[in-house]
Amino acid sequence: MLTSDIAMNPDVAEISRCAYGARKSSPERRKNNELVKQYDGLQTYQIEERWEVLEILRRVKSIIGLNDALINHLDYIMKRIPVREWEQGGCPIFYQTIVNQTDELGICPRAIRYRESKLAELGFLAFHDSANGRRHPVKPNGVLAGAYGVSLIPLMMRVDELRQIDYEHRLIIHRKRKLRAEAAALKRRIAVLIDEALMSYEGLEERCIEWAERRKSIRSIRSDDSFNVMERRLDAYVDLEREILLVLADCDAQKKAKSSEATMGKTCGMTKDISSTAENDFPHIYTNTESNNSKGYYSNTPEHSSGDKSKQSSPKGSQVDGLDVSKAHAAHVNASKEEACAKNRVSKGRSYNFAADFDELEHLSGAEYLSPSHIYEAACRKFREAVDIVSNNAIPKDLTITDIKLAGEYLSSHLSISPYTWNNANQVLGRYAAAIGIMLACRTHVRNAGAYLNGLITKQHNGELHLHKSVFGQLSTSKRGRLN
């Protein structure tokens, strides 16, 4: 036979190769032969799950060294092996000739041999060669008793191993997504802290510029980065946030110390003036005598008096040199408007503080009636996940208003809300009320979160916004149990 005839005829070339030279041996191929010897048919559930194996291969192909062409070739072979051949006593061997495969796949015989050889090296395919190298079935009495070709028995025998690889791969993907989400949340929190430092604190401009440059210099985490790289960049974000929080805490402590000193100075000065005043300057505090009357406080005996001067009481509006001194002894109690407002709120059963926790206009929207635990219990799954990310999975009763604000800030970009609408909501509603609006916009029946937020802004302008009613109604309909 001429060499040119061998090259032109694929079947003749395969016969010659098998006749004059055996296939290369390797540890994987020897392992495949051992698996073929141990094969004794598949159970019914294993036969039904053979397509699931191909899906697993598509998910973990980058780990085990497969590509789409090799997986498609396995799919091509799997479809042409009858189901009954996978049962006990069957013959799950694909014996179609390479010439016919060439016509169906539209590729050359050399590419088919390369795919089969590569799959055998990876441990997913085994060869069943005849003496002359041909591929054909063996039917002594018209019933298939055996065949020569290729088999996927090694693939089906490694299903448990592939599932373990797939499980570990999913864990890695989940862990990487969690690290990326934590890094994104830290990056946003750092930006919010820098803006707060610029707006609310004086003398931190240079530090804010330095923090912004450090935040920008940390490279974003990508999905193809290793765990060590992700953890290093996450630690850099954590260190930067901790540094900013420490500086802001020091500034708050200094402000508090100065304000307490100023308040103490005013109170001490007020008390000193009252205590140093002579008793004769406040005659109405004591029982009226002739000496008091002689000073001109009562030019005439009051009409309601019977003439007994010892029973006369001082009027409520007594003045000395044009000054109402009837309430002078209570001046140190009502030293500041803020203390009086705080006492008024406590007397009404409210323990929160407008100045510290809420923005300027949020007490007009109903947000002051809602605690962070109310928001968390009424929220949907998406908003709860955002709160868990920004609060490091804190329990509902330990959540703070800042956690709700950061969660709303985090979700505003994911809900396709324009920056103009979000900034307008922060200015009109306040950051806490705007975050509550984001929580309500996450519900499934809300189609457009931006339009919903604009509706809240319009209601706030008209004085018709009552966020607490919406949140408590959501709590009632969701039936999540008692409020915290």
Walk me through the structure.
- The chain is mostly helical and 484 residues long.
- It folds into 3 domains: 3-157, no CATH class; 171-255; 360-478, no CATH class.
- It contains 23 helices and 6 strands.
- The chain has helices spanning 3-8, 10-20, 27-38, 44-48, 50-59, 61-64, 68-79, 98-105, 109-122, 153-157, 159-200, 205-217, 227-275, 290-294, 337-347, 354-357, 372-378, 381-391, 401-412, 419-428, 431-441, 449-462, 467-478, and strands spanning 93-94, 126-128, 136-138, 146-151, 319-320, 323-324.
- The strands form 2 sheets. Strands 1, 2, 3 and 4 form a 4-stranded antiparallel beta sheet that branches. Strands 5-6 form a two-stranded antiparallel ribbon.
- The model is unreliable at 1-21, 270-338, 340-358 and 480-484 (pLDDT under 50).
